[in-house]
Amino acid sequence: MSFRRLLALFAGVLPASLVAVILFLAIYSWPAVRFNGLGFVARTTWNLGNTYGDPIVRNGVAQLPGAQYGILFLIVGTLLSTLIALLLAVPTGVGAAIFLAEAVPGRLRLWLSFLVELLAAVPSVVFGLWGYAVLIPLLGQHVFPVLGRLLGWIPIFAPPYGSGYGLLTAGIVLSLMIVPLIAATLRDAILAEPMVVREAAAALGATRFETVWKVVLPGVRKILIGVTILAMGRALGETMAVLMVSGNALNYLPGNIYSPISTMAAFIVSQLDSALQDPTGLAVRSLAEVALVLSVISVGVNAMARLVLYRAGLRGARV
Amino acid sequence: MSRRNDTGRQPGRRQVIALAAMAGLGLSVAAVAPARAAGTVNLLETGSSLLYPLFNLWVPGYTKANPHVRITTQSTGSGTGISEAISGVAQIGASDAYLSDALMKMHPGMLNIPLAISSQMINYNLPGLNGKHLKFSGPVLAGIYSGKITKWNDPAIAKLNPGVKLPDHDIITVHRTDGSGDTFIFSQYLSFSTPAWQNSTGYGTTVSWPAAPGAIGAEGNPGMVNAIKTNPYSIAYIGVSFKQAIVENKLGEALLENKAGKFVPLTVANVQAAANAKSAATPKDERISLVFAPGADSYPIINYEYAIVKNKQPNATTAAEMRKFFTWAISPKGGNAPHFMAAVSFVPLPASVVKLSAAQIAEIK
Question: Could you report the per-residue pLDDT of B81-93, keeping only the tens digit for each?
Answer without folding.
Answer: 998 999 999 999 9
